[in-house]
What does this fold into?
Amino acid sequence: MSTCKITKSFVDKVELPESGQAFYRDNLLKGFAVRVTVGGSKAFVLEKRINRKLKRITLGRYPEITVETARKEAQKYLGEIATGIDPIAKRQQAEAEQMTLWQVWQDYRRVKSNLKEKTYVQYEMYLNGKLADWKNKRLVDISKDMVAKRHAQLLSSHSPSYANTAMRVLSAIYKFAKGQYEDNSGNSLFPHNPVERLGQLNAWAREPRRQNVIKPHQLQAWYEALQDMKFNTGAESHHVAADYLLFLLLTGLRKNEAATLTWDNVDLEEGSIHIPDTKNKEPLTLPLSDVLISILNYRLRFRTNDYVFSSRKAKFLAYPEKALRYLTESSGIKFTFHDLRRTFITVAESLDISAYAIKRLVNHKNGSDVTEGYIIANHDRLRAPMQRITDFFKEQCNINLDDYVSR
It folds into this structure.
């Protein structure tokens, strides 16, 4: 690095390096320098040890900033450093303080790109919904009191689950900001999460665990309404959705796990299906009972694409809610998609199927169970329990395999 007196005349005439960049240090103000690149870019910098580390602060580009202005900026920074202030951290903090909730959310999406699409959709539902008036607020301007007040308002107008989830979305964004944005010393630029106020005040709403299942005495009426919806409404989506809903009941799969099942993950010869993408990230292979094989063979006759439960609009049955609403109204039995999974588990327990078998069938994990970690999963061992569960539903629903012969 060359030493010289940095003036306007010097900067105008300075030679460009043959490659890379070159630095010219001022012989009057220690640490003040001009950086010149092979492309002709010129910028003023200040080099100084901060917290025992040599740091370089860019003061501005020439000629957008003059030599005199750059020198004054350098002197200002040197004065701050002399009094124990880290100007780099101060600048980073000032920039971070301008970031809005929506800007941080965009960074969240970019960095956490491996999350499921439905997670992003759910987050934006809240950000564009009851948190919409906060989207353009600076993250530092959302206070603990604001969070507590908004949570209370949501509790008065929505369910406890809705109010809590909205605040969990906000908290997740703050937790991301805390770890993502740091100063040059590794300190978080957003160390405080205002949603913590809800825990401090014990204000999180209690969310009653849903216990709804389709009771045994309701199953026949439910199945008869299902078959009527399938064949007598004339709606193609109902025809597919009817088989899909029964498939959920007889497998205990989650809504999207069954909806996105593809034919290349179906082995009718072996009698099994494979779910590679599950909620707990553990792939699941399930044996098929006789009714499940019949359903799949039936759907194979109507195959239009790679998905078992196909749809002309979205390729797979992405929006089965209309069919579910129709069935609840026509059968008089209120249920949700997850109620079908809960009914499957309840029936399995009533048949005295082992807890380990049930866990494997529904892909539940129990990290505190040491013994479970030593048991090697084999889906063939689940074939008999799966058939026993289906046999129960066959009897209670009055399911006939002839129901799945093409009409």
User: Anything to note?
Assistant: Strands lie at 2-4, 21-26, 32-37, 42-50, 53-62, 266-267, 272-275, 284-287, 310-311, 315-316. Residues 220 and 397 are 4 Å apart (CA to CA).
